[in-house]
Amino acid sequence: MIDGKIGIEQRYAELQTEVEQYVRRARYLEAVSRVGYMVSGSLALEEVLDRALDATLAATGAEAGEIWLLDAVIGDICLIRHRGLNPEAFWSRTRFAVGEGIPGHVMQTGEAIVIPDIANDRRLLRWELIGAGFATLAAVPLLAKGQVVGVFDVAMRQTRAVGEDDMRLLTGIGIAIGMAVTNARLYEELQRANGRLAEQIEELQQAQAQLIATERLRAMGELAAGVAHDFNNALTAIAGQTQLMRRALERDAISRDQSARCLDRQERAVLAAVKVVRRIREATRQHDAEPVTAVALNEVVAEVVEATQPRWQAEPQLYGISIALHTDLAEVPPVTGRAGELNAALTNLVCNAVDALPNGGVITMTTRSVSSDDGRELVELVVADTGVGMSEEVRARVFDTFFTTKGDRGTGLGLVMVRGIVNRYGGTIEVASALGYGTTVTVRLPVASEDVAPTPPAERYAGSVGSLRVLVIDDMLLIGETIQDLLRGLGHDVELVKSGEAGLACLETGRFDLVITDLSMPGMSGWDVAAAVKARRPSCPVIMVTGWAEEVEPEMVARSGVDLVLTKPFTVAQLSQALAQVLLGAGRERERERIFVTPGVTEVL
Questions:
Q1: What is the pTM of this model?
Q2: The domain spanning residue 423 has which CATH number?
Q3: Of the candidate ranges 174-188, 459-473, 583-597, the one whose mean pLDDT is the lowest
Q4: Of 357, 356, 423, 383, whose CA–CA distance to 301 is shortest?
């Protein structure tokens, strides 16, 4: 009986030991799983390492832990993170050469080590750990794909044996951390690569914008002679009609009908000059800030034909050359894009066609609706000429940056700019040519989808604003007096001053329903005037007149309190409409919009 009892007790003790081993292994497996889960939850390296250390200290009962990673640049192993007690002791030295100290030894051999009594181990080079009361240290390599990427160690204050199960736990955690470190580094490298890619994309976009600007200026240079021709014509008509009226007045021999005819001719000449100014602004202005809208391509073609007329008609005629430009425009739906950019692209194609007709010929521009191979609705624009054409070798390079056959007259950027604009809106461009048989450029642009809204028409206001007391501020007396006379002709009482300071003085002593100010003035600018007016009388509308409306930033308009920007030259009708907008519009329940009014072509100042 006694022997049987002893045997049972021995068996019970063995089973209890086995159970304790199984429980310890299960706890270790749970710890490894928990560490793996925690380190996989983030790709930020520092967060990964802190999570791993916290989980390991909780599972092993160690008082401190640290992680070392290899610096591939200098070849040393560096202390990256520490968790637990006495951080100053562990941070007393943060770098070892491979093979130096305990971390360097593990890094070199790739083998785990356990030091039950670190005070008697010559590999210990940080004696501050002993002073902090630590006795035992275990270190394992961090492995990723068979490579040692660092070292992971834990330290305990008590001298204790670290068994196989403990080392299996630390080794498993080391593998999990090693993989996490590798993934985090790959993520950081990906982030850096994305950053570099973003910088390159930004540089490319800036280069493209510069390319478009350069080509736009070159095209403007090509049109310069025609612009001067148009201005000279307008000025000749204005000066001639003015002199006729003056001479007739001196002889007291001018009738009402003659005056009306002279004024009508002057007005038409001014309208022509206004169109020239608008073309110059359109050709040189950046369009990146414009919204993408549904663009009527036929209207753009018509504008380009008119704008380039001096280039394809007047200039060649100086040399006895005749060039005709014909259009065959079908009824087509609007396309997606920016009208200004499409205008610049078509202008370039027309100028190229003119250059290809040194002995004269015909340019034809046609539009029609087509479908792509995948069923998309497209609008096709064809610019064809009967010029000299080009060889296959030249045609194959027409889209190469800086490639040109025009010598010093060309930049090699024109068709590159055109293709960039077309591609930006999902379109395609093709060039067909043969020596002696002319060139045909075919552009296909996607039809605007329903979610791309057309450019909204300007809002109109009906009704009378009555007789107003208006303060006009303009340092140029001729302009100020003209605005004063126009307003008086509309039935308003007007006070005119030549500076912002004088205007504010008037505002202090008088009652005004409205302030109209120029933008560019010495001393106080139009921005300063608007801000000062709003500070004194927030409900008083402010209209700013300027010849630089296209360059005015909407944010600046809103910040200064300007209610409406009126572009010079403006019409009497537009001036009247502007008054109605700021006065009748101000009384409605609506979100405040800053309004830009651009010049029309029906009645000019």
A1: 0.44
A2: 3.30.565.10
A3: 583-597
A4: 383
